[in-house]
Backbone:
């Protein structure tokens, strides 16, 4: 189970602050298997981002994490920053919320797509460039050759998030963590981007951890949904089950708060596999 | 890209030439206008000085003789209307003629040309060393935020900023030259040595070019005290600004993203963090260089460094008008050149600047 290329979080506890500190995560258990989108939902401050950051080794300096984060038989929490660098960006990649902030405004797209690829694989400039063009094509950025020479401010938010996803895919990761990847974007491009993510997950067999506070997005995109509250996972199950028959009263209240159609029918419509990529944004909520 | 309206919307409008080239042409045009303004300003300021240059030039006795005075005013063009005087001045300047010093009867341009390399060598040494030190210390303090290293660096930078230049110059001169005798305290070269053949006018560079190592070490040791005194304030200032600039960048999403890409820590710092903080650092560096230049007057006097600073002091105290105008022009040009270089660096560093 742990050598399958997926991510397995066991009893993850995170404490932030000096001395006793504040406990942010109270022992999280979560599997992120390959070929599936695992949704992590929950209100603001529930610990979704901290969970993702624990995997990437990007917790604040005052944070202490315990438990296990297993990937290909290795517990990532036991690795030094230098050892972790062999995994992050290469085997486990991340896409952030706001692409205009997560890409360096003064470095060219080409530079930012290839620097980690070259440092991970030792590829030549030429090879890295070819790979970048391939990835930009995959995420449907128009004129990839030209895009490489541009800078972030020359793109729209939606295009830029595609660029960021291309960067994450450069080294052929098996795990992709996306922390609110569409929240900073126009409603009109959100659906497109989520569909892209779903497609990549299916094509490349990625293990996707999709963090969002939007249960609507979850209900149409994720295979399995975990709901967090105050640093605990209060609900975990496949999409259909979580949306139609939530076990936890907190999940119930989130579903009831969903706009437009009621949760049961949204879940029902998306339940069959063929419709998995359909999204709320494309169903008349715009 | 223009035909694909549904996708990219924020592409830079217009076109026509490389954006960096266009940016440079605009900045160069502005610079020429500014230079023109400097000649005008120098001219007006000099004419606002209430003191009578005639007396300063001719001495009291001759100035008491109205015939001599009239002849002098005639020859110097002092009775022409101001606009005429200005255009005479401007056309002379454009031909490289800055007039004749009233004190030495030498062409001002020649005298400035002889004094300039000394000041350039001093100022460059001070700014290069303090830029490296200041940015390095600021970066180090930021990366070691809230540790003892950070505290010590901050203390040192505060001291550097607070010490008055004249006091520092005197103390350094007294302690390191007069008492300890570690470094020479006056001039650019020991009197026993002959200056290296003139190529750049910078003794350290020229002696290296000539392969004259003893002269190089001697010139370098003469630089140490005045350049340190001149640069200390800049080190303090740059350390502070670099520290806060780097701290701000360390919090940016793109630094976190760079770490998430698994780049080595050193690459993250040099490529992502330093690059991001370079714009505010260069702004401060340009300003610091300006204040450093004004410090050369005092430092050159104390350390008997015969550069522009000393020359301008002598010109001012003797009311040598052509010399004063010459110095004013050169200083103005240097500041404008400095601004141009800073603008140019902005354009090189930050692609967003080129568009506007
Ligand atoms: N650097 C930090 N120092 C101290 N506490 C932090 C830090 N970062 C996050 N926290 C705390 O950890 C908790 C979880 O934060 P987290 O960012 O994971 O929430 P989230 O679920 O991602 O919320 P959102 O939907 O707003 O992004 C919050 O209570 C927050 O205050
Ligand atoms: Mg978050």
Residues:
């Amino acid at each position: 189970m742990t050598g399958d290329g997926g991510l397995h979080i066991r009893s993850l506890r995170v404490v932030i602050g000096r001395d006793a500190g504040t406990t942010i995560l109270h022992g999280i258990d979560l599997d992120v298997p390959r070929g599936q989108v695992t949704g992590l939902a929950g209100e603001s401050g529930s610990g979704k981002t901290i969970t993702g950051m624990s995997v990437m080794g990007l917790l604040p300096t005052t944070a202490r994490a315990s438990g296990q984060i297993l990937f290909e038989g290795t517990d990532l929490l036991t690795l030094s920053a230098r050892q972790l660098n062999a995994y992050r960006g290469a085997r486990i990649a991340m896409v952030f919320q706001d692409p205009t902030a997560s890409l360096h405004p003064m470095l060219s797209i080409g530079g930012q797509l290839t620097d980690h690829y070259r440092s991970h694989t030792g590829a030549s400039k030429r090879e890295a460039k070819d790979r970048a063009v391939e990835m930009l094509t995959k995420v449907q950025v128009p004129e990839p050759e030209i895009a490489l020479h541009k800078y972030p401010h020359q793109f729209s938010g939606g295009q830029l998030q595609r660029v960021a996803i291309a960067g994450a895919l450069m080294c052929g990761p098996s795990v992709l963590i996306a922390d609110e990847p569409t929240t900073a974007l126009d409603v009109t491009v959100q659906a497109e981007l989520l569909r892209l993510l779903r497609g990549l997950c299916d094509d490349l067999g990625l293990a996707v951890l999709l963090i969002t506070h939007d249960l609507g997005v979850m209900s149409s995109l994720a295979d399995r949904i975990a709901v967090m509250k105050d640093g605990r996972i209060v609900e975990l199950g496949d999409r259909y089950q979580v949306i139609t028959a939530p076990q936890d009263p907190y999940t119930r209240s989130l579903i009831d708060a969903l706009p437009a159609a009621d949760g049961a029918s949204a879940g029902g419509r998306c339940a069959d596999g063929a419709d998995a990529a359909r999204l709320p944004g494309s169903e008349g909520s715009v | 890209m223009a035909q694909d309206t549904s996708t990219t919307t924020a592409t830079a409008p217009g076109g026509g030439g490389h954006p960096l080239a266009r940016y440079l042409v605009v900045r160069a045009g502005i610079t020429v206008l500014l230079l023109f303004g400097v000649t005008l300003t120098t001219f007006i300021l000099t004419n606002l000085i209430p003191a009578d240059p005639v007396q300063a030039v001719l001495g009291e006795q001759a100035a008491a003789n109205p015939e001599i005075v009239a002849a002098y005013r005639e020859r110097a063009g002092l009775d022409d209307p101001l606009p005429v005087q200005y255009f005479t001045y401007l056309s002379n300047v454009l031909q490289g003629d800055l007039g004749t010093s009233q004190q030495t009867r030498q062409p001002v341009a020649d005298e400035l040309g002889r004094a300039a390399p000394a000041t350039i060598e001093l100022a460059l040494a001070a700014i290069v060393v303090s830029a490296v030190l200041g940015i390095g210390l600021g970066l180090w303090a930021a990366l070691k935020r809230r540790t003892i290293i950070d505290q010590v660096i901050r203390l040192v930078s505060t001291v550097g900023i607070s010490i008055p230049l004249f006091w520092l110059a005197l103390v350094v001169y007294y302690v390191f030259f007069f008492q300890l005798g570690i470094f020479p305290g006056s001039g650019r070269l020991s009197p026993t040595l002959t200056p290296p053949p003139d190529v750049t006018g910078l003794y350290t560079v020229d002696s290296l070019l000539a392969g004259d190592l003893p002269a190089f070490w001697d010139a370098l040791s003469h630089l140490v005290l005045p350049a340190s005194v001149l640069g200390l304030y800049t080190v303090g200032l740059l350390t502070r600004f670099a520290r806060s600039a780097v701290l701000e960048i360390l919090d940016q999403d793109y630094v976190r993203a760079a770490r998430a890409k698994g780049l080595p820590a050193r690459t993250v710092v040099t490529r992502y963090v330093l690059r991001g903080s370079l714009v505010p650092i260069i702004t401060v560096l340009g300003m610091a260089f300006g204040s450093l230049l004004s410090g050369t007057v005092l430092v050159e006097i104390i350390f008997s460094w015969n550069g522009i600073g000393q020359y301008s002091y002598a010109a001012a105290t003797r009311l040598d008008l052509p010399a004063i105008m010459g110095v004013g022009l050169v200083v103005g040009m240097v500041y404008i050149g400095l601004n141009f270089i800073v603008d140019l660096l902005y354009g090189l560093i930050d692609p967003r600047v080129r568009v506007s």
